[in-house]
Amino acid sequence: MRRQQGMRLDDRYVPYLQMAGLYHLAKLNDRWFQLDETLVSAFVERWRPETHTFHMPFGECTITLQDVAYQLGLPVDGRYVSGCLSEFHIYIQGGRPAWVWFQELLGVIPPPSQVQKYAVNCSWFQETFGECPEGADEETVRRYARAYIMMLLDTQLFADKSGNRIHIRWLPYVARLEEMGTYSWGSAALAWLYRCMCRVANRHVVKLAGPL
Questions:
Q1: Which of 29, 91, 170, 173 is most exposed, with minimal Cβ within 10 Å?
Q2: Which residues form the Aminotransferase-like plant mobile domain (predicted)?
Q3: Does residue 134 lie in a domain region?
Q4: Can you say whether the dihedral through the CA atoms of 174, 3, 135, 24 is positive or negative?
Q5: Which residues is 120 bridged to in the sheet?
Q6: Cβ burial 150-170 (10 Å sphere, 16+ → b, else e)
């Protein structure tokens, strides 16, 4: 059994998670799960990148957008998620340095030893934002909610193979918490999963990323 992360789901985050369309995902993330790596490997071996389907003895099947909506509770209608998975520096508003914006939105800046280019070590995130202080004012709660949402996005939906870093490319989204629910997070998560599955189908790739 393993848990994906160590940041506690605080009741004070719930309104922001609901606005973002991520509350159901947060509730799932707050539980313990068992990942059957042998079963996952068996499915990977049957994945065909050219059709995005699993070739099974009884025919073809795949993971659909409806599956994502039902199982993860993510919104599948709305604006597409873009501008955050590559060329991150282009999308920083007002030409501000990324880390300046990070400090404005989260109230703290990580030490250089905890940063790898535009990613922060998960351990630092968990230690810094693991538990929102009792009696915190609304602005502090918003900062902790932003950190929790960034953790959800980068460790649950758009995880890389390292699984131990949180990228700050999500700043443009958590800066406007009230608008996050207008994006089709389900479509983006499914596209990322397909991309990860197609990559791991290459015999030279040995580790699977994505929303497993």
A1: 91
A2: 21-212
A3: yes
A4: positive
A5: 115, 166
A6: bbbbbbbbbbeeeeebbbbbb
**Are 108 and 128 in contact, with CB atoms under 8 Å apart?**
yes
* Number of separate domains in the chain: 1
Rounded to 5 degrees, what angle do the CA atoms 159, 164, 166 make? 65
Q: How many CB atoms lie within 10 A of CB 33?
A: 11
Domain enclosing residue 121, as ranges: 11-200
Tokens of 5: 């992360």
Q: Is 115 helix (H, G, I), strand (E, B) or coil?
A: strand
Helix (H) or strand (E) holding 119: strand 119-121
- In this prediction, residue 2 carries a pLDDT of 42
Domain assignment present for 172: yes
Q: Which residue has the higher pLDDT, 200 or 27?
A: 27
Domain membership of residue 211 (yes or no) is no
pLDDT by residue (tens digit) across 41-88? 888 889 998 899 999 999 999 999 999 999 999 999 999 887 654 555
pLDDT digits (tens, 9 = 90+) for 121-139: 999 999 999 899 999 999 9
Distances (CA, A) of 206 to 22, 45, 111: 30, 12, 32
pLDDT-derived band at 202 (thresholds 50, 70, 90) equals confident
CA distance readout (Å), 23 to 2, 116, 123, 148:
21, 29, 23, 11
Q: What is the pLDDT of residues 13-36, one digit of tens each?
A: 999 999 999 999 998 887 766 778
